[in-house]
Structures are given as C-alpha cells and as structure tokens.
Amino acid sequence: MSVSETATPGQISEKGAAGVRMRGVTKAFGSNVVLRDLDLDVAAGERVVIIGPSGSGKTTILRATMTLERIDSGTIEVGGRHLYHELHGSKLRPARESHIRAVRSDIGMVFQHFNLFPHMTALENIMLAPMKVHGKSREQARDSGMELLDKVGLAHAANQTPGQLSGGQKQRVAIARSLACEPKVMLFDEVTSALDPELVGEVLNVLRDIAEEGRTTMMLVTHEMGFAREMADRVVMFDGGQIIESGAPADVLVDPQHERTKAFLGAVK
Ligand code: ADP
Hints:
alpha/beta; four-stranded antiparallel beta sheet; globular; nucleotide-binding; membrane; ATP-binding; cell membrane
C-alpha cells in the first residue's frame, strides 16, 4: 500500500476504500463484558489483521462493525460517517435504522461458514443483494456477478448450488457475493477456519487479489499467521476485549513485547 492510497482515518481513499474509527466501544452479553472501551483506527485502504485468544472479542468487534451486534456505548465511524449515531448540530444522537442501513451498505462481511443460500446457484447468490438492496437490474447484476465469479476462478460454477461446491469454492462464492456490493470496508471472520487444509490456499489467493486491488479496507480475523505476516499492514492483538499490542507484522508477530502476545503466538505456532 503506497502512502498516496491511504487517507487518514475516517476518510475515503482515492480508490474508494473507507477508513474506520472506533472510540470507547463497549459491549457486554449479560455480565460478560466482551469489548472494553476499545479504540481502533483503520486507515482507508489499510489491511489490519486481528489476532488473539478465543473469546477475546475479535468476532464481536467485526459483528459490531457490521451492525449484527449493537454496541452498548462508544462510537464507530466508517468513511467519516457515524454508524450508530447521527449528528444534530454538534450533538450525537442514536441513529435511526435508515441511517444505520445507509452507512452499513459500505461494509461487507465474509463469515467462517459461508452463509450462502443453499437453494440458489452461485450466480444467484451473488446477484441477490445488488438487485434487492442496490436496485440493479437483473442484467447488470448478472454481468457483474459473472465478472466476480471469473475473478475468484469460478465462472464455470455459476449455475451450481452450494451443495455441489467444495468448501473452498463456497467460500470464494461468498467472497464474490460480498464484493458485489462494492464495499468500502470488508470484514473477514476466520474465513479459512472451516476449510480442509488443502483448500485454504485458494481462498487466501483470492484475499491477496482483493488486497492488491486496494479498493477496500480490510479487517481480518485469522489464525493463518504466515498469511498475516505477508499481507497485513498492521497486526492488532486482542485480549479481554481490549487491544494490548498493535504494530507492523514484522514487530508484533516476530518480536512481540507483551507477555500475552508471546504466549498466544507460542500456542498457535
Ligand atoms: P473471539 O472471536 O475472540 O473468539 P467472540 O467475539 O466470538 O471472541 O466472543 C467473545 C465473548 O463473547 C465470548 O465469551 C463469547 O462466549 C461471548 N459471546 C459472543 N457472542 C455472544 C452472544 N450472541 N451471546 C452471548 N455471548 C456471546
């Protein structure tokens, strides 16, 4: 990523990627406080890998950014627009659903378990949101859907249903589906964890291609440390719902400063 492609947090890069700014984000499930007063800035076009032990809040921060979990307090901005709040003069008020939906339309998320519609073909899965949410015509959605399938190496599988595809192919369709809405920020939650080892590489290759294009900011939760080291601009270590260490992969993954990071990396190696 060159400096010219990177805007300051909260802005949009030349290529259309959006920055993310989180302040004081807190979330509890009952008495279990999962995110604690968390601050995180992700620059437009940046690729941030989130690591940390199970239960440290990695999935929850992605789901909160996708508005699949509502936060208890704090703020999240995407491309300079508040996600959960609206500005009334200089005052922040809780946002209406229509505002939340509008800001969220800039964000795409890919899950561990694909979440494809099983009764639809690969192409139909990809065409759905552009038609229903973004008002594209069937022809437009089909053309760009085929382009995306080609991009993830699956043009030949356009008319197959998820049940006819391998795990790696399903995940590539899920990624293409997410790209169909031209997200300015993409969230990837352990997208290779459910795959057989021999299928992981094909999905990581698609992520590399997306990263290279630089059109979207990427936040990834992954246990693929080699991949993280190669493609992350920054690695962020979560523990107990907070960020305890953050820096270049060559620092955090190779020469971690925090004892908890050392212990975690020792355990995943
Ligand atoms: P990680 O991704 O780091 O493994 P998560 O964000 O998935 O961690 O979960 C953090 C904590 O929040 C865990 O203790 C988990 O059990 C809890 N949690 C996550 N989602 C829910 C939920 N919907 N209801 C209750 N507890 C949840």
